[in-house]
Design brief:
about 200 residues; two-stranded antiparallel ribbon; globular; about 5% strand; mainly alpha; single chain
Length: about 200
Amino acid sequence: MTIQALRLALILSLVASTALAGDRPAKGATLGRSPVLATHGMVATSQPLAAAAGLRVLQEGGNAIDAAIATAAVLNVVEPMMCGIGGDLFALVYHAESQKLYGLNGTGRAGSLATAEKMRQDGYERMPGSGIYAVTVPGALDGWEQLRSRFGSKSLAELLEPAIGYAENGFPVSQIIATDWKAAEEKLARHPAAAANYLIGG
């Protein structure tokens, strides 16, 4: 399916859903909307641009691991307060050919100097929920590469391309993400580097 055909299908579905506002008209239906069904793959995210990036990877011959990495990379750009490349990664991968299940724990560790003694010296009785001590050594990017090199079929450059495009050219910010971003404004404003990157023009 071409991008133009995909856009047309989306527009038609939006028009149809507007025309049938409210619950489904089918007798005996208890759901508010029909379940999404697919035969060759599916991508589900909290953000449509990220889902579209993953779907494009599948349409271009990539596999589920490729699509997951492309999707996660776009989420880092369009939903930065929820999904960060500087965070952790957990993955369960079922490899159909070998019929084996694999797990990857890409949990970031505390920095080597962030000992319990150092925390106590700095006046903390428990781990802080924000600030530099709450940040772990990132595991996400290394996790992407471990998954890609073992199970993927595309290069990391190809998979990062959609995210790079949105980072360089911009993207529409949805209402929910804008609201979440606004809620973090005071915290971001306290740090000059964060404010420069996320509170552009105030």
